[in-house]
Amino acid sequence: MLHLLYIIAIIAEAMTAALSAGRRDMDWVGVCIIAWVTALGGGTVRNILFNHYPMSWVEHPEYLVITAGAAILAAVIARLMTKMKKLFLYLDALGLVVFTIIGCQIAEQINLPWLIVLLSGMITGCAGGVLRDVLCNEVPLLFRKEVYASASIVTGAAYLGLEYLSVPVGISIVVACVIGLALRLLSIKYNWQMPKFVYREEWH
Amino acid sequence: MLHLLYIIAIIAEAMTAALSAGRRDMDWVGVCIIAWVTALGGGTVRNILFNHYPMSWVEHPEYLVITAGAAILAAVIARLMTKMKKLFLYLDALGLVVFTIIGCQIAEQINLPWLIVLLSGMITGCAGGVLRDVLCNEVPLLFRKEVYASASIVTGAAYLGLEYLSVPVGISIVVACVIGLALRLLSIKYNWQMPKFVYREEWH
Amino acid sequence: MLHLLYIIAIIAEAMTAALSAGRRDMDWVGVCIIAWVTALGGGTVRNILFNHYPMSWVEHPEYLVITAGAAILAAVIARLMTKMKKLFLYLDALGLVVFTIIGCQIAEQINLPWLIVLLSGMITGCAGGVLRDVLCNEVPLLFRKEVYASASIVTGAAYLGLEYLSVPVGISIVVACVIGLALRLLSIKYNWQMPKFVYREEWH
Fold first, then answer.
1. Quick one: DSSP state of residue B194?
2. Do A197 and C26 touch (CB under 8 A)?
3. Distance CA B139, CA B147 (A)
4. Which residues, including other chains, have CB under 8 Å from residue B114's CB and lie 6 or more apart?
5. Distance spanning both ends of chain C, measured CA to CA
6. Interatomic CA distance for residues B130 and B132, integer angstroms
């Protein structure tokens, strides 16, 4: 079940990433690489930091094919995608919570302390988008956008909290996902923002 | 033989990278770091992703000395290099195919599936340039330039295909390199471009 | 002792990093991530390159709490920090030499050749700031600033040189730190610059 949602999520991430590549006039190679980095980069960064090998896409090279195909499809039907903007925002939110849960679970498997489990969820959910923005030469949206990383942290905390209360794992996952999704979607709908820190002094 | 070409290639990559650093007014430290990242970064990224240690430059620290020396030499003779622009474009193309073959071979040694072998070649050939552009705060040229990553993929595919047909390894390497080089040089000469995906809708 | 200086240094790095985040109007998530990357990123990059696990912040998750707390405090007292600019420049210089020594020691523990030990010190001292600048979408200051990476190299070289002369380790560390600090602080005071390489020809 989580696996199926994972596949849907990487497809959705790859498709929206393709549009970011299009904003920078990239060719098909650029489109594919940006899609890979966005959809698979979060888990890759997590695995590098926690020395957890092999990468999912090395064990399952079909993920590379699926995401590349989805990205090129997105470039072809870009006009249609613009009309389905809302659907993709929902799928992106779904991806965020699914990636977060998977990241938490992997960190639990290798017995990391709970704070690192939470961080692993956030890295898995968010680092792909950060890499995408760095490669597209933009300040990562994550650092400025509405409740995004925060939704990931809340999802992970709910999951860990329910687990701590001995709630069965399946229920913990569903509840944590629903809470995280609700928070993310409400924040999009009402344009919630985290307080920003604006500083203009030059030191150098 | 491949080793000799590798040394020539990292020297050439380091020298052209130094000019990129010069466009950003970097000092000698910046010039050396950009040269290292460009010449040795592709293999380094590959090794990190596939958990293949130690790095070549840890086993052979002389690579760091050679590339740093080449980069500083390039800064000194920058005017001369501009005149030899064509030579360096050729050497860069040579580096691309040599790095690609080496990347494929290393992935084969650790028994990765063929799609990942191809990707390993592309990462080894191209990631150094991507890192250089990120550090120089530019959208990676790779994602937009004439047939570059594509030439790497074709080189790797030719190498793997010939190997599959039981052609002796030495011949496979030479033929794959010639095909890749020809493709890259023709694309420079005739300014071939991959189709670009241009998208201007704002979502956020 | 070195450990105490390390804690002071990561706090100082996290606080100045928060101001960089403020220049890009980041929210609290961005502020924390930039602080983590700046304060802990140098050692993290070093560990990835040399396959040295686990990360310090995985073993000591409290480092994440301390640096995040320091960063948020910095955002709150930003005005006060501007007035204490000099203090933070000194603490940043202290961090540079302390990180450098720690980086050299870790590379020595895993028996890397001396040139790599020096590089390990420089990476530990400087890579955090490079990552910060990449995430803030700027050309890394390190590549252009007054004697910074050079101070790290001199610190590492002094440490290695004294060790080679069989000077007791404690004395080597203190002398190397004093030399590195003096060089860095003098370069700030007199605005020393490394020679820059400026190049304006376009190749593409």
1. P
2. yes
3. 17
4. B160
5. 52
6. 5
Q: Which of B44, B42, B43, B20 is nearest to B32 (CA)?
A: B20
Answer whether A197 sits within 8 Å of C54, measured CB to CB: no
A199 interaction partners in chain C (CB closer than 8 Å): 19, 22-23, 75, 78
> Could you tell me if the ipTM is greater than 0.85?
yes
Contacting residues of B for C148, CB less than 8 Å apart: 29
The strand pairing partners of C196, in sequence order, are B27
Crossing angle for the helix pair A85-109 and A28-49, nearest 10 degrees?
Answer: 30
Give the residue carrying structure tokens 């979060």. Answer: A42
Residue pair A72/A18 in contact (Cβ under 8 Å)? The answer is: yes
Summarised one tens digit per residue, pLDDT across range C110-120 is: 999 999 999 99
Residue C110 CA to residue C50 CA, distance in Å, equals: 9
CA distance C171 to C59: 29
Give the closest residue to C81 by CA, choosing from C183, C9, C12: C12
Q: Which two tokens stand for residue B118?
A: 């191809």
Question: Which tokens in the block code for residue A137?
Answer: 């030469």
Residues 6+ apart with CB under 8 A from A125: A42, A95, A96, A97, A99, A100, A103, A149, A152, A155
Cα angle at C33 between C28 and C37, to 5 degrees?
150
Is residue B55 left, alpha or beta, with left meaning phi > 0 and alpha meaning psi from -120 to 50? beta
Structure tokens at A9: 């999520």
Q: Name every chain A residue with its beta carbon within 8 A of the beta carbon of B139.
A: 24, 135-137
Tens of pLDDT along B9-55?
A: 999 999 999 988 888 888 888 899 999 999 999 999 999 999 999 99
φ and ψ at residue C88, rounded to 5 degrees: -70, -30
* Angstrom distance (rounded) from CA A165 to CA A15: 38
Mutate one of A23, A28, A51, A58 to test the B interface: name it (highest B CB count within 10 A).
Answer: A58
